[in-house]
Each structure stands twice: as C-alpha cells, then as structure tokens.
Amino acid sequence: MSKKTDALLYHSTGRKGKIEVVPTKPCRTAQDLSLAYSPGVAEPCLAIEQNPDDAFQYTAKGNLVAVVSNGTAVLGLGNIGALAGKPVMEGKGILFKRFADVDVFDIELDSEDPDEIIRAVQMLEPTFGGINLEDIKAPECFYIEEELKKTMNIPVFHDDQHGTAIISAAGLVNALELVGKKIEDVRLVLNGAGAASISCANLAISLGLKRENLIMCDTKGVIYKGRTEGMNKYKELFAQDTPLRTLEEAANGADVLYGLSVKGAFTPEMVRSMAANPIIFAMANPDPEITPEQAHAVRGDVLMATGRSDYPNQVNNVLGFPFIFRGALDVRATVINEEMKLAATRALAELTREEVPDSVARAYGNVKFSFGRDYIIPKPFDPRVLLKVAPAVAKAAMETGVARQHIDLDKYVEQLEALQGRSKETMRLIINKAKSDPKRIVFPEGEHPKIQRAAQTVLEEGIGQPILVGNAQKITDGLHEIGIDPGLMTIIDPASCPKSEEYAQELFELRQRKGLTLSEARRLITRKSRVHFGCMMVRQGDADTLLAGIDAHYPDTIRPALEVIGKKEGLSSVHGLYMMVLKKGIFFLADTTVCIDPSSEELAETAILAAQTARILEIEPQVAMLSFANFGSVKHPLAAKVREAVQLVKEREPGLVIDGEMQADTAVVDEILQQSYPFSALKSAANVLIFPDLTSGNICYKLLSHLGNADAIGPILMGMNKPVHVLQYGDDVSDIVNMAAIAVVDAQTR
C-alpha cells in the first residue's frame, strides 16, 4: 500500500509526470526573440534546405530520441494500452537523460496495426536522431523493427529485444570464462520465445554459440521441427530436429539455462539435472524463474544472474540503451547494426574484469566488487559504463561504414567525461555511505505521516534504524493507515518509557541552575517536549543521531538540542550549512540558518566546520569568504571583519584552501579569479561559500533553490557535541530521507 502511495505521489507531486522541456538558448529580450523565431530562424531553415545534414548543426535532432510504444507489452503489465503505458515511456526518457544526457520525447501511438505504427514512425524521421521502440508485443515488434530499419536513415532499436540480449550476452561471456567453458562447446536452453528471447538467441549465436546447440522453449514446450501449435516464422528459425519435447527434458545436461518467461518456470530438479558448473540467467521480472537461494540449495556450483537489483548480477537494460544511443548519435549512425551490439557486449564484459574504483564501491554502500561469480556484469551507477560502451559503439559504427561523421575517439572520451561533471548522484553516494554503517536515528515527531513514510524508506534502504517517538497508539494507527507494518519499527512513548525518569533526572542536573525544577523536567520529558526526550536519548547513548523539525520552527528544535547536548567545547556557536546541487556542480553555503550577525571568530568557525563537512561528504573544500568588497577594495568595518576571519582560519587550518574577502561572482567564476586576482589562494572556483551574515546567506540559498533550480539539501547543523540535524518545516519525504543519510554519515565520524 505504501509503495503504491509513494509511486503515485512521486508522479503527481508538483509538476505532473516526470519530464519537461527546457530551452537551451536565452529568450529574454526582443533580440533573443528575433533570433529564436522570426526573422532570425529563417537563416538555419535556409541552410538546412540547402544541406539537410545541417539539421544536426542547427537543431536538437542529433541528440533527440523518440521512445515509441503502443502499450501492448508494458513491463509485467501486458497490453494496457498506449495511454496507460505513458509513465513507463517518460521513465525511459529519464534514464536516457540521467545516464547519457540524451533528450527524449515519448510518443504513444494508439494503434495495434503494425503498418499504422510503421507509417507513423517513418513520418517522424525529420524530427529525431534515433527511434527507441518500447513495449510492443511480439511478433508484431519484429516486423515493425525490420520494416523501419529497411526504410529509415536513422537508428531504430527495439530495446526489449536487443537491450536484454546485449546485457545478458556480456554476462554470459564472463560466466563462461569463470566456469572454464567455451561458447562454441556449450548447450544453451532458452525458456521464452518472445522479443527478448529471440534477440538473446541471435546475439549468442553471433558470439559463437552453435545454432544446433540452442534449444528454445515456449509455453507449449520445445520448439522442434514439424511443430505447428503456437508457431510463427520467427520461432521457426530456432526449431530443432530433436526428440526433446519439454523444458525438463531440454534442461537435462544443459550448460546454460536462460529464462525470459515467468516466476517458477525452473525447478530444483531441472537445476540438479544440468551439467557441471551450470549457468542460469533467470531474467523474469519482478520474480525470476528460480531464485538464487533455491538454485544454490540444490547445488553449490551454480552461477546465477537475475533481473533483480537485490541479487548479484542484475541483467539491467539501463546498462545498454542510453550508451548505445549515445555512441550512435554522436557519429550520426544510420543504423544500430550487429557489430555495434557486439561492441557494446564486449565493452561491458571487459569493463567487468577491470579493477572497480572506490567511487563505485561507495555508490553501493562500500561493497567491494571484483570479477567473479557474484560480479559478471557492471553496475548501472558505474560512471565508466558511459566511457566504455559509447566509444565502442561509435568505433564499430565508423568501422562498418554506417557512421556519417567520424570522430577522434580519445577526444570523444574527454567529451563524455564532461557530461558527468554535475553532481554525479551525490546524494546517492551519501545514502550508500550511510548504508555501509547504519546508525540509530531518533525521530521525535514520530506521529507525523511524512516521518513515518521516510522512516520506512530509511529502514528498507538500510540507511539506519529509525526510532519513532510519540504516542504509541497514534503512531501504530498512523503506520497501519499508510500500509506500514508497525512491527518493523521501534516505537517509544515517552509517557510510558522506562527510561523517562532517568532522562528527567539528567535534564534536571543539566538545567537546575537555569531555572528548571525536577517536576518541570519530568513534564518536558514525558509530555511537553519530545525533542528534549530525543536529544536525551542521543546524549545517553540510546540513539546515535536525531532528526526533527518537520512540524516546528527552526529555533524550537535547536534550543532543546543546545540545552541537552550542547555545542562542541571551544566553539563560540553552532553553525548551519546547506548543500546546493546545481547543474554546474555542488556548493556548500554557510551560515544560512544560525548566526545572525557573526563576529570574525564565528565566521572563522563557520568556515572550518563547513570545510570539515565537505570532507566528510568526500568533497575537497575550496573556501571563499564572501563580502561586498574584493581583497581590500573597500575600507569598511564589515569587509574588515571578513578579512580578519580569513586570517584566523589560515592560522588554525594552514592546509585549507581559503581566501577573501571577495564578491560572490569572484568566488565562483574562474575567469574573474584568474584574470583579475591571480594572487588569490583560490586558483579555481570555490565550492564552499561563507556568508558574512545570516541575512545574505539565507536569502541566497532560498533564491538558488526556487529560482536557480538548485536542489537544497539541509540544513546541516555543525558544531554540536553529538549529531543533531534539523528538518525544514514542511520537508518532503525524500528531503527527510536525504537528511537522515547525512545524519548517519555525521554519526559515523564521531
């Protein structure tokens, strides 16, 4: 229930759906308008009329793919129609953009007539650089793709067929090497005779599998010569002259078992009957033909892959189509041919055998990957996939004569690296860093539905162990209402908690000379302030970190934290920071939430703590102390305060790259720094910006967030004795999960 709710909210919150069109040129002035449209637009029109290839120079065609579907074979949902399939096609567009920076329009065609679909797609050729066919049922999908490839002069690629084939083939190459078998010697049994199955069979044959060693099965059993029931011309190509009639018979003695069918299609008895060191790719989704646990229970020499991310060796199409189209588009290929598919297969197989960098391990919770039975296919979030597959595809296109543009492959790799210049899923890396050593997170607002849903995600993703504080009955009822099993959560009611008296006594000891009586401490702990209760849990070691503020003003969360946990010894104050994720990169902005009018001492503290936070999150800090002046250009006490702070930081942290006072544009524009201020300690743009007061910092981060399309992650509270972090009033569930991950990473460093 909660997953359904989360999925529907994800798609419906804010701007509906998952995609939007963003202009790449300015259109703010009359001059811009005259260039974007009439009369200026006539010039590229005339140029394209004279030379059609100029469309790649003057329009988005060269980076634009159509994801085309009629909704007749959507995911595991079947024939749900073109309109119902639209969310999937939008999702495909997100993956194209996220992994390879390819732009997509999704095209849903309301027709089951193959010839109508063919004609509609043919008419789209002037618009697009490539066509990705998606979720069209077999056998019509074969005919549609064949006809389009014959008649169109841009790449046409049915991902349901070829994507699965390419990824599984890469895994097969590596699996065979690990078990010491050659592809020309093995016998492969393939259960399923749809689009993906037939493409997998063809690609395996292209890799060297002997056609006579391949047995294909469908719901009627083995596809054999002379069979008439349930046959078509595409299945007929794989009909064997064999006495075998059932999947069970075919599996006996087989080296490889491919499943593109249904849950439970492979039985333990089939696994037991296979040859030594059997390879099983159970790729049905969401549930495989047999699970790894079931297969390994039968015999220990099985090497397995599935379509699921919670098992090793996931056959995931996202490892293929974004990068294949990237390479094809960048050389303006007219088709995606067999050589290009094989190039992608070999690139993926070879990448798996390379040493896996720490950045990939961090992206998956610090799990170390190395070539072996549990790692035969690269991970989707491995940034090297783009750098390996796209150039391999482009090279194959050029070598086989289907590329209309030849490129320098070394420079091409550099261009691809530049595509990865933005945040590189920074938050995902932080989440996985948290998952490597989960901590106990106390949520004092445990009755709030958003907190409960976030706690479920925190628990399911392994980020931490949530503790929900509040009225136990209300929390339980709320969890039931949104479909979460209360038995999975730790729920603590301060009114009945055995430790409440201990916490009250400790609070009284802390605050008795601040006007707090023991009876008032008891009221605060048991009834009045759940933030005090949660902070006391952290203080006493019953929780590792606290996250609160979804339903309260910022000071109402910080005040109890300061009273119970306090700031670090030697600091004059606590400080606040936001991490801003923009297309240009990641910036840390401080102080944006706490110090209203800081002294030089407080500014220096802010800078040092912000730099430490950046390093905890594995970003090397370059710090700019901001002002309205540049390096003494204005004599004013406010500018002098910032200069003094810079000196204090340099004395305390001589190894930290920091400079100021400087204006904001000086801090973030390389050209200004290098041309006007070559003496600056900053040789490139700063990524940690320290504001001279709360007013400027708070205004800046909110403007960046709402007008600059930056993702604001925070506030991150710095300088507390123990990790306490504050939510923004009204944060979304995803914001809470992000902050929970940051809180856990903070706790890991204590």
From TrEMBL:
<dbReference type="InterPro" id="IPR002505">
    <property type="entry name" value="PTA_PTB"/>
</dbReference>
<feature type="domain" description="Malic enzyme NAD-binding">
    <location>
        <begin position="161"/>
        <end position="398"/>
    </location>
</feature>
<dbReference type="InterPro" id="IPR012188">
    <property type="entry name" value="ME_PTA"/>
</dbReference>
<dbReference type="GO" id="GO:0016616">
    <property type="term" value="F:oxidoreductase activity, acting on the CH-OH group of donors, NAD or NADP as acceptor"/>
</dbReference>
<comment type="similarity">
    <text>In the N-terminal section; belongs to the malic enzymes family.</text>
</comment>
<dbReference type="InterPro" id="IPR012301">
    <property type="entry name" value="Malic_N_dom"/>
</dbReference>
<dbReference type="Pfam" id="PF01515">
    <property type="entry name" value="PTA_PTB"/>
</dbReference>
<dbReference type="Pfam" id="PF03949">
    <property type="entry name" value="Malic_M"/>
</dbReference>
<dbReference type="InterPro" id="IPR042112">
    <property type="entry name" value="P_AcTrfase_dom2"/>
</dbReference>
<feature type="binding site">
    <location>
        <begin position="74"/>
        <end position="81"/>
    </location>
    <ligand>
        <name>NADP(+)</name>
    </ligand>
</feature>
<dbReference type="GO" id="GO:0004470">
    <property type="term" value="F:malic enzyme activity"/>
</dbReference>
<keyword id="KW-0511">Multifunctional enzyme</keyword>
<dbReference type="InterPro" id="IPR012302">
    <property type="entry name" value="Malic_NAD-bd"/>
</dbReference>
<dbReference type="GO" id="GO:0016746">
    <property type="term" value="F:acyltransferase activity"/>
</dbReference>
<feature type="active site" description="Proton acceptor">
    <location>
        <position position="92"/>
    </location>
</feature>
<protein>
    <submittedName>
        <fullName>Bifunctional malic enzyme oxidoreductase/phosphotransacetylase</fullName>
    </submittedName>
</protein>
<keyword id="KW-0479">Metal-binding</keyword>
<dbReference type="InterPro" id="IPR045213">
    <property type="entry name" value="Malic_NAD-bd_bact_type"/>
</dbReference>
<feature type="binding site">
    <location>
        <position position="134"/>
    </location>
    <ligand>
        <name>a divalent metal cation</name>
    </ligand>
</feature>
<dbReference type="InterPro" id="IPR046346">
    <property type="entry name" value="Aminoacid_DH-like_N_sf"/>
</dbReference>
<dbReference type="GO" id="GO:0051287">
    <property type="term" value="F:NAD binding"/>
</dbReference>
<feature type="binding site">
    <location>
        <position position="285"/>
    </location>
    <ligand>
        <name>a divalent metal cation</name>
    </ligand>
</feature>
<dbReference type="GO" id="GO:0006108">
    <property type="term" value="P:malate metabolic process"/>
</dbReference>
<feature type="domain" description="Malic enzyme N-terminal">
    <location>
        <begin position="16"/>
        <end position="149"/>
    </location>
</feature>
<dbReference type="InterPro" id="IPR037062">
    <property type="entry name" value="Malic_N_dom_sf"/>
</dbReference>
<feature type="binding site">
    <location>
        <position position="135"/>
    </location>
    <ligand>
        <name>a divalent metal cation</name>
    </ligand>
</feature>
<dbReference type="InterPro" id="IPR015884">
    <property type="entry name" value="Malic_enzyme_CS"/>
</dbReference>
<keyword id="KW-0521">NADP</keyword>
<dbReference type="InterPro" id="IPR051674">
    <property type="entry name" value="Malate_Decarboxylase"/>
</dbReference>
<dbReference type="Pfam" id="PF00390">
    <property type="entry name" value="malic"/>
</dbReference>
<dbReference type="InterPro" id="IPR042113">
    <property type="entry name" value="P_AcTrfase_dom1"/>
</dbReference>
<dbReference type="InterPro" id="IPR036291">
    <property type="entry name" value="NAD(P)-bd_dom_sf"/>
</dbReference>
<keyword id="KW-0560">Oxidoreductase</keyword>
<dbReference type="GO" id="GO:0046872">
    <property type="term" value="F:metal ion binding"/>
</dbReference>
<feature type="binding site">
    <location>
        <position position="160"/>
    </location>
    <ligand>
        <name>a divalent metal cation</name>
    </ligand>
</feature>
<comment type="similarity">
    <text>In the C-terminal section; belongs to the phosphate acetyltransferase and butyryltransferase family.</text>
</comment>
